[in-house]
Design a protein that fits this description.
- Keywords: Hydrolase, Protease, Thiol protease, Ubl conjugation pathway.
- It is an enzyme of class 3 (hydrolase).
- InterPro entries: Papain-like_cys_pep_sf (IPR038765), Peptidase_C12_UCH (IPR001578), Peptidase_C12_UCH_sf (IPR036959), Ubiquitinyl_hydrolase_UCH37 (IPR017390), UCH_C (IPR041507).
- By secondary structure, the chain is an alpha+beta fold.
- The protein has two domains: 247 residues, Ubiquitin C-terminal Hydrolase UCH-l3, CATH 3.40.532; 42 residues, no CATH class.
- Helix content is 43%, strand content 13%.
- It has eleven helices and seven strands.
- Strands 1-7-2-4-5-6-3 form a seven-stranded antiparallel β-sheet, with helices on both faces.
- Helix 1 packs across helix 9.
- The two termini are 41 Å apart.
Length: 314
């Protein structure tokens, strides 16, 4: 493999433009704010969901999953890949949905060729093939947030780190499957048609969340759906179409910002401010520094009075 995989955010705009860059047509992701089937149905035609959660690092594989049953035979007729590399699980989860919806979704020439090439392999080799795909890796990395301080390809998680993991849920062959590359096989959650998916997947997600302490709220759910602009055009809903176009523009802007490292810009800005203060004459620079220190001390004292940590400055 010629390079590593960087961390990407669980964000509808990131995932939508990532799959478009891979050649997928007329599909987008929508963030869901509640675990209600009605909200999922409102997203239109649904292909699956991507769930992000804090991974219990001490958890070990067992012969039986916490929920559902392993379907070891399913790997021969659905696309399921073992996760073989860190940081790739977000892209692997969305591909777990899309590569199993080929026919319903136009996944494009590149992904179709990848699926045909890797489809006959066992899950472990499929995972290796995915990890070694230059196209998929480079597209994935193009949506990573720029960091001048941390090389994500070299970083290794420790037991004290919060580790997050993406998995996919989708209906395949009238069965609700959980596709998690860290598990030995797809997990079946029972019979489920495409139309039943919103009603069947929500209880599964609720049971998973219920295994965490009530104070744990760091979850994220993205629905993989048909491009909402298509539905707006079909219904002649100009207001909805305008809202979707505006959302796409916002996503483009946010994705562009992710690619930029602003440290150099901030450094030059600070140098300009300091130069300006120094040019204003004797004592101006020193007074500016002392005023800044005084403001910081006041903020610390205010936070302590409110019962907050004095060192926790926002």
């Amino acid at each position: 493999m010629s390079g590593g995989w960087n961390t990407i955010e669980s964000d509808a705009g990131v995932f939508t433009y990532l799959i478009e860059k891979l050649g997928v047509k007329d599909v987008q992701f929508e963030e869901l704010m509640t675990l209600e089937p009605v909200e999922l149905r409102q997203a239109g035609k649904i292909y699956g969901v991507i769930f992000l959660f804090k991974y219990p690092t001490g958890e070990k594989r067992s012969d039986k999953p916490n929920d559902g049953t392993y379907d070891h035979d399913a790997s021969s007729n659905i696309f399921f890949a073992a996760q073989t590399i860190q940081n790739a699980c977000g892209t692997q989860a969305l591909l777990s949905v899309l590569l199993n919806k080929d026919g319903e979704v136009d996944i494009g020439k590149e992904l179709r060729e990848f699926k045909e090439f890797a489809g006959e392999f066992p899950p472990e080799l499929r995972g290796e093939t995915l990890s070694n795909s230059d196209l998929i890796r480079e597209t994935h990395n193009s949506f990573a947030r720029s960091s001048p301080f941390v090389d994500e390809t070299q970083r290794t998680a420790t037991e004290d780190d919060d580790v997050y993991h993406f998995i996919a849920y989708t209906s395949i062959n009238n069965t609700l499957y959980e596709l998690d590359g860290l598990q030995p096989a797809p997990i079946s959650h029972g019979a489920c048609t495409t139309s039943e998916f919103p009603d069947k997947v929500i209880p599964v997600l609720q049971r998973r969340i219920a295994r965490y302490p009530a104070t744990e709220i760091r979850f994220n759910l993205l629905a993989c759906v048909r491009d909402l602009r298509i539905r707006a055009r079909e219904m002649g809903d100009e207001e909805a179409l305008e809202a979707e176009d505006s959302k796409r523009s916002d996503w483009l802007w946010e994705n562009a910002l992710r690619r930029h490292n602003f440290v150099g810009f901030v450094g030059e800005l600070l140098k300009g401010v300091v130069k300006d203060k120094l040019s204003q004459g004797d004592g101006v620079y020193e007074k500016w520094v002392e005023d800044s220190k005084a403001k910081t001390r006041r903020r610390v004292e205010d936070r302590r009075k409110k019962g907050l940590g004095g060192d926790d400055i926002e």
